[in-house]
Specification:
22% of the residues are buried. The chain is globular. It has seven helices and six strands; from the N terminus they run E-E-E-E-H-H-H-E-E-H-H-H-H. It has one domain (52-78, 86-298). A hairpin with a 2-residue loop joins strand 3 and strand 4 (52-55). Helix 3 (108-130) packs antiparallel against helix 7 (262-298). The longest helix has 46 residues, at 212-257. It has helices spanning 56-76, 86-105, 108-130, 169-191, 193-201, 212-257, 262-298, and strands at residues 3-7, 22-26, 45-49, 52-55, 141-145, 155-160. With 307 residues, the chain is mainly α.
Length: 307
Amino acid sequence: MVAASLHAQSPAATPAGQPAVNAVAQTPPASAPEEENLPSPAPPALFHIGPFPISNSIICSWIVAGVILIVVRATTWKNIKEVPSGMQNFIEMLVEGWETFMKDVLDARVTRWVFPYATTFLIFIIMCNYVDLIPGVGSIGYGTPDKESVLPFAVHIEEPLFRPPTSDANLTVAMTVVFLVMSLFWAIRYNGVFGFAKHVFGVKMKTSKWVFPILSLLFLFIGAMEVVSILFARPVALAMRLYGNVFAGETMLDMAFHMHNWLASLLITMVVYFYETFVCGVQGFVFGLLVVAFVGTMCSHEEEADH
């Protein structure tokens, strides 16, 4: 609001009997910017269990975990056949294909350790990603009537009841912490404490005894960078890549859905839906692939230099 005070004359110069005139000119208030209908990075807490807040992303993660348990239980409990068919055949095909890929990358002993965790990550993340494409997720919840909408009974959702679990950074960071702890455990179990230290900081090339001290300093620096990569760069890459892609997809769908032109909204929403169908599957596979690749770099015997 802009106010300009116009003082025509000072009291000394004002003629007798005429008070000084102060005119205030006001401009109409500027219109407030339209509220963006975008999902919040921080999920709202729907209720609390003791001191722990339960958000809409946690509710969806429970539902996804329940669906996985029910499907796996229904296809394996008292229904396992030597010649699989139906859902059992589909699940065995996925599991065997993933296990074969891991055996090509990891040592057979490491594969037995990593396979349950990597497979759980893969299935859980893919299903969590596809929650984003289920109608009602992000559009059913608590809100206020949307008077600007042309649709009857339209509501501006402020606290959705459901949200894709992987669009919450808390979940992706938690899964990454689990991976970090387990990968260090597997690396020490495979190499031993001193073997793992030698794997990270040791000289990894043949050299003479005269050049070895210089190369030792070089590989000491490389090992320090490797430690930073293991403890920080890799976990951040895993967590933020998954979170960023899923949250971006959710945001694009929400923006397309709230466009004023209904025809453009419909067309763009369909395009984004087809795009997200591809991205959700790829991001789950990339997470599992990176888990296997990162463990493979930590659990491998390299030819050490002869001195």
